[in-house]
Structures are given as structure tokens and as C-alpha cells.
Design a protein that fits this description.
Elements: H1 2-6, H2 12-15, E1 23-24, H3 30-41, H4 45-57, H5 71-80, E2 81-82, E3 87-93, E4 99-104, E5 110-118, E6 121-125, E7 129-131, E8 146-149, H6 152-164, E9 174-177, H7 187-198, E10 210-214, H8 218-227, E11 231-235, H9 241-247, H10 256-265, E12 274-280, H11 288-297, E13 303-309, H12 323-335, E14 339-342, H13 359-363, H14 367-376
Parallel strand pairs: 1-2, 6-9, 9-10, 10-11, 11-12, 12-13, 13-14
Antiparallel strand pairs: 3-4, 4-5, 5-6, 7-8
The structure holds S-adenosyl-L-homocysteine.
Residues 134, 138-139, 178, 182, 213-215, 235, 237, 277, 279, 308, 310-311, 354-355 line the site of S-adenosyl-L-homocysteine.
Length: 379
């Protein structure tokens, strides 16, 4: 803690430049990056686009290696800009195939991404903030508080760098903003990062395969829809306002009624639904009365429900419901024609499951553990 305080902190704005004053070109959208290259180093539009593509599609590490543009231009670029990367600190592989990546950022902060193979799908769960300000009682990331926002490059580098580590022909199919942080609390940087993720000259994900998950920052939900055509997931986690307020402090700011109204108002393209995540806590929100109330709440909303049996951890006395309770709850919803799935817990042995992110980051400073894990992951 003392050490933490002694380290000079740089704001996210300051982090957009390196110590030599060069700009983080990966934190710009395509349009901004191209305009910047044309203005600042006199690139033609074609040269600027080739450089942008080399950065995002070929994973260029520095300007010198971008031989699609001429030497003198590369030199000028290298004087004024830099290509940022996340430093891989640790890679943990779970017995179920889940992989957790722990990254160190330029100012020494740490974040995590989790890669989840599931049949034909390969989903990457990425972080949007260091820590989180939302303080949901059941979530370990909340214990960290909000340390800082991630800049756009720190968000988009997660899929870039994990993607490049995969075997030939294997691609990340889905991106979910369900890692550390509240994505709508960092909407400007998120927008810029997702711009690159969606851009066919960059990471080229389909908007149908990107899901942003939120505690329900009501005013930001409409803003997200106006900016990006991605899927929305809402962490509902309760069947009444009072119950939700007990575990999610944000409920004091935006009531459950306001949240549900924002969901009704959310401009959904045809065929799309809002996913409602519901963390199930034993003897708290796992009864059939809860299921009944939940059905009532979601009436009139194009909704699907994702039940997440609570992932227990030693820092909390909260318990996961019995399998019978989860099954009965799901059955109740399905019989009332609600699309309800149960999220299978993945990567629990490496603290990669929902709500466990951030915790291991605190423990990863063990040098021996670090080296073993690097060897296991072949890094
Ligand atoms: N802040 C966003 C993104 C985080 S997503 C949001 O809240 O939606 C993390 C998801 O995991 C949320 O649905 C959250 O409710 C759930 N979660 C958090 N802690 C959990 C735990 N210990 N077990 C199961 N799910 C948990």
C-alpha cells in the first residue's frame, strides 16, 4: 500500500503518450488514426490505411517492421507515435480448457482476460477498467474499488494479443465485456476500442458476436445503443428492488423500475434480445417465488435469462444454491416461455470464473508461481 502511494500515478489522459511524448496510436479509431497520420507525418490516405492495417491485422510491434510503407515515413511515425502492447505477466490454463491471461499495464496496474472454449465457440471475456466502482457485494473485483479506466488500446489489445497467440486457423468467435470493470462507466474509451474490434480493416468482429454487460447504468444504455450496434446484457441478479438494493448499490441510484424501463426503451434490432444475468445466491434469490417475480419483471421485454450459480470464494460467506434449486428455477422460467440457460462455471481452478477476477491478480506477485505458470503455458 505504501509502495502504491509512492509510485507517481499517471492519469489515463497522460497514458495516451509514452515517456518520450509519443502518442499511443492504438488508442485512436480508424478515422482518427488516419487523419492523425495525414496531418502529423504527411502520410497519404493509402499509406495511413496500410499502416493502420499492419498494426491491427498483422500485429506489428513497431513501425520499422511495417514494410508496406516507405522508410522515411516509418521513421517519422516512430518519432511521434508508438505501438502499445499489454505485457503478458501470466497465463493460466484450467483443466476444463479455459485460459486466464494476466496482463501488466504501462503504469504497473494489472488486468485479466479469460478465453473460454465452448463447442464451436471461442469466447474472450475482456476487462474495461482496473478494478470497479460498482461495489456489488458478491463480486471480488468490487473489493479493489476503481483504480482507473482502461484506455482504448488496453481494451482492444486484449483480443488482438490473445488472438495472435492462437494456432493457425483458430479465431476468437465472441467478445464479451464481462471481465473486470463496468464497461458503461468507461463508455468513451470502450466505444473507441470496439470501433477497432468491429472494423473490417482491423479486428473485424461481427456486431452480433460482441456483448456488453452492465450493472444497468441507465443513462448510458441508450448512449451505447446510439453509438454501437452490439448486444446488451444486464446483470439483474434479483427479483425485487429491495433485494437488488441489498447486493447492488447502483440500485440506490437507478431503481429497478427505471432499469427495466430503460430495457423496454432499448432499441433492439429485430431478432435480438437482451440477456439478463442472474447470479443465484443460496437462500437469497433462488426460490420459486423469486422465479415467479422474475417472470413478472421481464414481461414485455424481449429477454433471455442467463442463470449464474454463485462462484464461492473464501472471502465471502455467500453460498451457491443446490443443483436442484438451480434446475427448478430454470424449469419454472422455461415453462413460462422464458428462454433461460444456466451458465456452466468455467476455470474455477484458476480463479477465472465470474466474479473471481482481480483476486488472483493480487496473489500473482509470487515469483516462483509466476515462473512455473509461464513454463506450463509455454511462454
Ligand atoms: N460490470 C458488468 C461486467 C461484469 S460481468 C456487469 O456487472 O455486468 C460479471 C458478471 O458476473 C455479472 O453478471 C456479475 O453479476 C457476475 N458475477 C460477479 N461475481 C460473481 C460470482 N462470484 N459468481 C457468479 N457470478 C458473478
Amino acid at each position: 500500500m505504501e509502495l502504491d502511494r509512492a509510485r507517481p500515478r499517471r492519469s489515463v489522459r497522460q497514458l495516451l503518450h509514452d515517456e518520450q511524448g509519443r502518442i499511443d496510436i492504438k488508442s485512436m479509431s480508424r478515422d482518427d488514426a488516419i487523419a492523425w497520420m495525414m496531418e502529423e507525418v504527411g502520410a497519404t490516405e493509402g499509406q495511413a490505411l496500410r499502416t493502420y492495417k499492419a498494426i491491427w491485422q498483422k500485429g506489428a510491434r513497431n513501425f520499422e517492421e511495417i514494410d508496406q510503407v516507405a522508410g522515411p515515413l516509418r521513421k517519422k511515425l516512430a518519432q511521434k507515435a508508438y505501438i502499445s502492447f499489454l505485457a503478458p505477466n501470466l497465463v493460466l490454463r484450467s483443466s476444463d480448457g479455459t485460459v486466464k491471461y494476466l496482463w501488466t499495464l504501462e503504469d504497473g496496474e494489472q488486468i485479466e482476460s479469460v478465453l473460454i472454449p465452448d463447442g464451436d465457440r471461442l469466447t474472450l471475456c475482456i476487462s474495461s477498467q482496473v478494478g470497479c466502482a460498482m461495489a456489488c457485494t458478491f463480486c471480488l473485483t468490487g473489493d479493489l474499488g476503481l483504480k482507473r479506466q482502461l484506455k482504448p488500446s488496453e481494451i482492444a489489445n486484449q483480443p488482438l494479443q490473445v488472438g495472435r497467440q492462437l494456432p493457425e486457423g483458430v479465431r476468437i468467435t465472441n467478445l464479451v465485456l464481462m471481465g473486470m470493470g463496468e464497461p458503461l462507466h468507461n463508455l468513451d474509451n470502450l466505444t473507441r476500442a470496439l470501433d477497432v474490434c468491429l472494423d473490417d480493416e482491423a479486428l473485424n468482429f461481427s456486431h452480433r458476436k460482441i456483448t456488453v454487460s452492465t450493472v444497468g447504468l441507465v443513462p448510458k444504455m441508450g448512449e451505447l445503443a446510439a453509438r454501437l450496434p452490439v448486444n446488451l446484457a444486464v446483470s439483474l441478479n434479483a427479483s425485487s428492488h429491495e433485494q437488488r438494493a441489498q447486493i447492488m448499490p447502483i440500485t440506490g441510484r437507478y431503481s429497478l423500475d427505471e432499469l427495466l424501463q430503460a430495457c423496454r426503451d432499448f432499441p433492439l434490432p429485430s431478432g435480438k434480445m437482451i440477456t439478463f444475468e442472474y447470479v443465484m445466491l443460496r437462500d437469497f434469490n433462488d426460490s420459486l417465488e423469486d422465479a415467479e417475480r422474475l417472470v413478472g419483471l421481464l414481461e414485455g421485454i424481449r429477454a433471455k435469462v442467463n442463470l449464474i450459480p454463485y462462484n464461492e470464494n473464501p472471502d465471502r460467506t455467500l453460498r451457491r444454491p443446490t443443483d436442484e434449486a438451480v434446475d427448478a428455477f430454470q424449469d419454472y422460467l422455461v415453462k413460462r416461455h422464458l428462454n433461460a440457460t444456466v451458465r456452466v462455471s468455467r476455470g474455477r481452478d484458476i480463479s477465472a470464473a465470474c466474479g473471481q477476477l482481480g483476486k488472483a491478480a493480487q496473489q500473482a506477485v509470487d515469483e516462483g508461481w509466476l515462473q512455473t505458470a509461464r513454463a506450463i503455458a509455454g511462454m
